[in-house]
């Protein structure tokens, strides 16, 4: 459930070894930087400036800026009663993150962010990146592998309580790596290419801890053909992305879960390569936002049959189409800023939205009766079709309330599963952050 | 619909006629009875991925299931699940296995069995003590699993991995076959280390029963539903007056069944059963659907006969004071008489026409060559031979020994 909701655990050994509290580490970093500045850049200390413009910020001349970030989300959920599945919490402190980000001299930008509610793997983003040349930048550390628009969107800026199932389960998540990225042709084209230590942290626990896990390569290209023009299509963008990596032999097949967080995909044995391809679209004409994405994952299964034979590849596919409308007229952006904040003379910003999505898995071949085995040659096709309707109420720059109503219809082998054709969930989120 | 061509039709009719003439209807040619009746040493082939087979040996302490197909007499049952089983006998050299046929496919069976165990006889150099014991239980009217031996092959390369005792598990299919119902409450008793529990009343806390009685049916019911009846039964065992056990246990426990089980276990010198040296062990408890009545079902009698070899020759009333119920039975003349009567019945049964001796010798002949070819056997062949010699001696001597014991007590 927590993974479905976005509690993504770090997959890197380095991250796993860091068991300390993020608060303490942020403090330690801040102290170290202070000492550094005290010893080596004493003149700059004279220029230390503390401000609070949306969030607490410290600027030390041109040497350093540090913005303190805090993110919290409290969810109230009501999922359908489904026999044979664990009960779900009604209240979930979904996200409590503390971080610091800013500039280091003129050449670098950095970010540190940790999840206070995850003592085992607290670290999320820990990276540093070059700053001066927007055409070509380099980022190193632990961060999200560049794949999936929805997955790369901050959890605080989602249009709905949950990411799309496709992004939540078919994207790789975070890992330790290096990426080159930039904006070229007057920001009409954005690119990201990177190499990562393993296959991301948004995978099964068995894969995260598998010593055989190897590098993953990723790339993403987004075109905004009318970016330079001041017309209705200026925000129109389309993109494509891929990842390719070695899949350690074992029960490491791609995960897929339902909205309440129960298993949807079979737990398959795999071996070979995992490849993802994705396509994305986004358009934000004024207060309206339209977004869609398609992701397909292919897992190879060399030598994974009962008799050691090669099995057909296993596939998973997900897509979604989202539409939102800011009724109060603000421009749709990643972070919506109410024109007239609530309790300050206005009602805030109110947005309605709807999403249609599907998550599915299958394999080629014919039903030989072995579909339920983790080494089955033929994987029974399963699919979860989800319709989400929601209202977002942005009070101000800090507070957002979100209410969603979700309908699911699950099918196996092309037929709706008995009792799972009309499942309703309701979720409500109180979000605070700066 | 496509009409079959004449040659195909003729062939099909000929096949059916041939089967009818042979008196073996189609579909009944392979019955699990042929596997479990022990009339022949069958070959069983577990198809399992090499990596999984290795993991089963490397991670033998884990209860992880791996997918497997099970093939017997050319019939391959797919989508089974296999894991290592056992407690003290758990090992990575020649592990025992549990094969579950409906873990991945609800309702799937292996010729009617939900599950079976493949016992490597890790603690029994003769490899036949469990089979002989279960045979006596069944002949004495106690619902007990059938046990037979197989040559086990594993992996895509069909590697011979040794002689195993295949045992039908006490599951719903077992209950249906023995009691004609499977909707009651079935529990497997788990002996906890240093527990030494013998039906003493542990108090009102239901949590005490949870680790000791694992539900095998109705697994998802509440602790109260599952364990209040067991607590009630244990309290009744403790409250029941020695002179009239039925006054509290009538309708709750098959007392005669328990007496028979005690007699059999002490006849075969089972040191790890109801009156084991370290408390209760190796049984299932089944409470019939819609009733309060429970029965005990014996399990894993691999420690029987072995005590004879070690020089420990327990008398047939051995350890009767080790648990509350056995103690009341032993100390009350009318129940003691029933117990001694059951002992004599067992003695008569096993000596009639040399039943047990014949079975022991037949088992030995049946598995001898396969054991000699078993590269994974934990025992030297000399120990296998000696164990069989010992069992044969035991079977020859024990009936008269028991009769003498009983006679000495009743004089």
Q: What does the model show?
A:
The complex is a heterodimer of chains A (about 425) and B (about 400). In chain A, strands 3-4-5-6-7-8-9-10-11-12-13-14-15-16-17-19 form a 16-stranded antiparallel β-barrel. Chain A is globular, with a radius of gyration of 22 Å. Chain A contains six helices and 19 strands. Chain A has a single domain, classed as Porin. Chain A is about 10% helix and about 45% strand. Chain A has helices at about 15, 20-40, 40-45, 150, 165-170, 205-210, and strands spanning about 50-55, 55-60, 65-80, 90-105, 110-115, 125-130, 135-145, 175-185, 190-195, 215-225, 235-250, 270-285, 290-300, 310-325, 350-360, 380-395, 400-410, 415, 425-434. Chain A is mainly beta and about 425 residues long. With about 400 residues, chain B is an alpha+beta fold. The chains are: A mainly beta (about 425), B alpha+beta (about 400).
Task: Give a brief rundown of this model.
Helix content of chain A is 10%, strand content 47%. Chain A contains six helices and 19 strands.
Search tags:
A: 434 residues; mainly beta; Porin; 16-stranded antiparallel barrel; 19 strands; 10% helix; globular; B: alpha+beta; 2 domains; seven-stranded mixed β-barrel; four-stranded antiparallel beta sheet; 13 helices; 11 strands
Strand count, sense and closure of the main sheet of chain B?
A: 7 strands, mixed, barrel
Write down the Rg of chain A.
Answer: 22 Å
Order of helices and strands of chain B: HHEHEEEEHEEHEEHHHEEHHHHH
Would you identify the CATH architecture of the largest domain in chain B? Orthogonal Bundle
CATH topology of the largest domain in chain B: Phosphatidylinositol 3-kinase Catalytic Subunit, Chain A, Domain 5
Mean pLDDT across the residues of chain A is: 89
Biggest sheet layout of chain A? 16 strands, antiparallel, barrel
End-to-end separation of chain A in angstroms reads 26 Å
Largest interface: A-B, 19 and 15 residues
Percent of sequence in beta strands of chain B: 15-25%
């Amino acid at each position: 459930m927590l993974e479905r909701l976005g509690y993504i655990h770090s997959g890197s050994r380095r991250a796993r070894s860091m068991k300390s509290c993020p608060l303490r580490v942020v403090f330690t970093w801040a102290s170290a930087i202070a000492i550094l500045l005290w010893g080596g850049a004493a003149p700059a200390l004279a220029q230390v400036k503390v401000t609070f413009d949306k969030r607490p910020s410290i600027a030390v001349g041109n040497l350093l800026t540090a913005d303190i970030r805090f993110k919290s989300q409290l969810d109230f959920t009501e999922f359908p009663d489904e026999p044979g599945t664990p009960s779900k919490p009604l209240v979930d402190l979904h996200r409590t993150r503390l971080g610091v980000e800013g500039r280091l001299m003129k050449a670098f930008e950095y970010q540190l962010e940790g999840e206070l509610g995850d003592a085992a793997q607290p670290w999320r983003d820990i990276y540093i990146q070059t700053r001066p040349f927007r055409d070509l930048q380099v980022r190193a550390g632990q961060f999200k592998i560049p794949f999936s628009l929805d997955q790369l969107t901050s959890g605080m800026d989602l249009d709905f309580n949950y990411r799309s199932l496709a992004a939540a389960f078919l994207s790789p998540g975070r890992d330790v790596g290096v990426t080159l990225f930039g904006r070229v042709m007057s920001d009409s084209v954005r690119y990201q290419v990177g190499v990562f230590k393993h296959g991301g942290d948004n995978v099964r626990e068995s894969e995260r801890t598998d010593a055989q896990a190897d590098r993953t390569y990723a790339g993403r290209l987004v075109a905004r053909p009318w970016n330079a023009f001041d017309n209705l299509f200026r925000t129109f963008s389309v993109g494509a992305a891929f990842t390719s990596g070695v899949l350690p032999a074992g029960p490491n097949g791609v995960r897929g879960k339902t909205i309440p967080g129960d298993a949807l995909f079979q737990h398959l044995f795999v071996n070979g390569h995992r490849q993802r391809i994705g396509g994305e679209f986004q358009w934000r004409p004024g207060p309206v936002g339209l977004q869609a994405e398609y992701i397909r994952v292919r897992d190879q299964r060399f030598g994974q049959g009962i008799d050691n034979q090669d099995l057909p590849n296993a596939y998973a596919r997900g897509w979604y189409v989202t539409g939102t409308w800011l009724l109060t007229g603000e421009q749709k952006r990643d972070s919506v800023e109410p024109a007239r904040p609530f309790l300050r003379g206005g009602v805030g910003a109110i947005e309605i939205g709807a999403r249609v999505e599907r998550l599915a898995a299958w394999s080629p071949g014919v039903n030989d009766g072995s579909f339920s085995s983790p080494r089955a040659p033929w994987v029974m096709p399963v699919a979860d079709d989800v319709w989400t309707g929601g209202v977002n109420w942005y009070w101000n720059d800090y507070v957002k309330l979100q209410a969603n109503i979700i309908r699911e219809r699950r099918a196996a082998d092309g037929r709706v599963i008995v009792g799972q054709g009309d499942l309703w969930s309701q979720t409500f989120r109180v979000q605070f952050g700066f | 619909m496509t009409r079959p061509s004449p040659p195909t039709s003729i062939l099909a009719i000929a096949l059916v006629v041939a089967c009818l003439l042979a008196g073996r209807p189609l579909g009944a040619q392979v019955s699990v009875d042929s596997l479990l009746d022990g009339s022949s040493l069958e070959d069983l082939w577990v198809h399992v991925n090499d990596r999984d087979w290795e993991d089963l040996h490397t991670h033998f302490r884990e209860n992880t299931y791996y997918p497997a197909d099970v093939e017997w007499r050319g019939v391959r049952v797919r989508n089974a699940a296999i894991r290592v089983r056992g407690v003290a006998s758990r090992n990575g050299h020649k592990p025992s296995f549990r094969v579950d046929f409906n873990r991945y496919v609800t309702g799937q069976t292996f010729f009617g069995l939900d599950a079976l165990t493949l016992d490597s006889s890790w603690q029994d150099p003769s490899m036949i003590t469990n089979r002989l014991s279960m045979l006596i239980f069944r002949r004495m009217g106690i619902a007990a699993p059938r046990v037979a031996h197989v040559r086990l092959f594993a992996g895509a390369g069909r590697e011979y991995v040794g002689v195993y005792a295949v045992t039908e598990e006490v599951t719903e299919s077992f209950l249906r076959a023995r009691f004609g119902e499977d909707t009651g409450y079935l529990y497997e008793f788990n002996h906890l280390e240093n527990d030494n529990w013998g039906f003493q009343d542990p108090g009102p806390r239901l949590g005490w029963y949870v680790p000791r009685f694992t539900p095998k049916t109705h697994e998802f019911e509440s602790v109260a539903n599952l364990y209040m009846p067991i607590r009630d039964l244990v309290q009744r065992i403790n409250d029941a007056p020695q002179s009239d056990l039925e006054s509290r246990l009538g309708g709750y426990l098959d007392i005669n069944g328990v007496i028979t089980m005690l007699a059999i276990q002490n006849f075969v010198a089972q040191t790890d059963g109801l009156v084991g040296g370290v408390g209760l062990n190796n049984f299932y408890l089944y409470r019939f659907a819609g009733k309060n009545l429970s029965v005990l079902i014996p399990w894993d009698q691999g420690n029987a006969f072995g005590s004879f070899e070690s020089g420990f020759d327990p008398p047939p009333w051995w350890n009767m004071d080790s648990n509350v119920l056995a103690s009341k039975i032993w100390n009350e003349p009318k129940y003691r008489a029933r117990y001694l009567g059951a002992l004599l019945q067992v003695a008569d049964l096993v000596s009639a026409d040399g039943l047990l001796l014949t079975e022991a010798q037949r088992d030995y002949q049946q598995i001898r060559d396969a054991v000699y070819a078993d590269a994974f056997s934990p025992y030297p062949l000399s120990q296998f031979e000696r164990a069989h010699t010992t069992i044969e001696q035991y079977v020859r001597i024990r009936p008269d020994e028991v009769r003498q014991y009983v006679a000495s007590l009743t004089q």
